[in-house]
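Q: Here's a chain of 325 amino acids. Please give me its 3D structure as tokens.
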Amino acid sequence: MDIFSPLQSFANTVTYNWFGITKQSYTAGVVNFWIYDILKISILLVIINYFMAITRYYFPMEKVRELLTNKNWFGTQYLLAAILGVVTPFCSCSSIPLFMGFLSAGIPLGITFTFLISSPLINESSLFLFPSVFGIEVTLLYNLLGIVIAITGGYFIQRMKLEKYIQPDILAFTNKSRLVQKYEGQNIPFKEKVKLWTQEMLNITKKIYPYVLLGVTLGALIHGLVPDSLVNSVLSKSSGWSAPTAVLLGIPLYANSVSVVPIIEALVNKGVPLGTALAFMTATVTLSIPEALMLKTVLKWQLLAIFFGITTIGIVLMGYLFNAL
């Protein structure tokens, strides 16, 4: 069961019953998508930011950093980050709060990007819907390649030493030391801790929320107003450029994996090459303009461009591989 299904039911009620918008209209697509996504991302933003504020207070981050950068554990930390992305049912935008939490907690940059790539790329659709639509072999290969792309992308970003392109204020959201100094070794009252965690959560949330509104609004407009026939006509053209074209077309079309799988199935049934269709789907759920707007509050444009570039290359190569099979 989708844990966000009550939010979808509420969005349906508001769109179709309260506003009385016709289900098949473009307006319904825009409004329904906007209500559902803004509720989901807002709830995740508050919960994850609050959880990370508590984690930063109690967790021995120096030891964690040592563990995750220990050369004796080479590769394992990236695999764990990729697996964490697999088990979190987030789209590209709603995985950003946890990504921010990782950064501000001092987790290495490459590991945080491994999570950011794998979270939307390998999801409930690729795990549970793919077998009935594309078969078990395609399902296994897609998910394996998704993990490889996430780990490889994170590893290259780590090796390039791009920490200087993180917005500096994202790393400075903890006031624990001041609280400790205030009580001079005494037990800090729980009420004071709650105030600290709440303020820290609000600081981060207020910083990113305007971009959440802008990103979701833009995503909703694209989702509701771009006709499926346009996508179909472009992707159905078979050529060596079909996979890159599918990725470029998919990036602006922000959508979650569950909503886009039926479109991909229809495209394949109409003769669109499997790799091209999967490249389109993967770009749609992993990379998006709303995601870029939200990440811009955390990353400088240089790192943002490198992240999109590495992930795009991985998705295009995946498309070529599936087309060649």
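Q: Can you summarize the key feature?
A: DSSP finds 16 helices and no strands in the chain.
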